[in-house]
Write a structure and sequence with these properties.
With 139 residues, this protein is an alpha+beta fold. 24% of the residues lie in helices and 9% in strands. It has one domain. The longest helix is centred in the C-terminal third of the chain and has 10 residues. The chain is globular and about 40 Å long.
């Protein structure tokens, strides 16, 4: 699940193509991608190291919606993610503990509850889908 204004990390598609086939089958697994936001006039970081060097500066990068809706990415536990080693190969790092209001960006199976397009406008869109996924047993 992504959003129209989300720009993935350079090379993420290729890294996912290498990662997903190596995983044991898991019909209810969602792999969360940490999300950040930055100003348009700042170059997109090419690595985790570069992102972390510019993290926290309001003019550079911060956790996605950290100001607008803090719960949005809270369960991703960005502080824990920041402490992980920066590796080329993707691998599961830890399990995010669902909290109400969580709007994660993830890679998952086609069986995940559908995004409800009837929610028009801003708010309670992806977090409803994330809640439904949690209630259906996805992790």
């Amino acid at each position: 699940m992504t959003d129209v204004d989300l720009m993935p990390q350079y090379g993420l598609f290729e890294r996912l193509r290498g990662f997903l086939p190596k995983r044991p089958p898991c019909e209810k697994c969602l792999y969360v991608v940490p999300a950040f936001e930055g100003s348009l006039d700042v170059a997109h970081p090419r690595s985790k190291k570069e992102l972390l060097q510019r993290f926290g500066n309001k003019k550079h990068f911060r956790v996605y919606h950290a100001v607008a809706f803090r719960k949005n990415q809270g369960a991703t536990n960005i502080n824990r993610w920041k402490r992980l080693p920066d590796e080329d190969e993707l691998k599961p790092a830890y399990e995010a503990n669902f909290t109400f209001g969580y709007e994660c960006f993830y890679v998952g199976p086609h069986t995940v509850p559908r995004y409800r397009e009837r929610f028009i406008g801003y708010g309670f869109t992806r977090n409803v889908q994330t809640l439904e996924s949690h209630l259906a047993g996805y992790k």
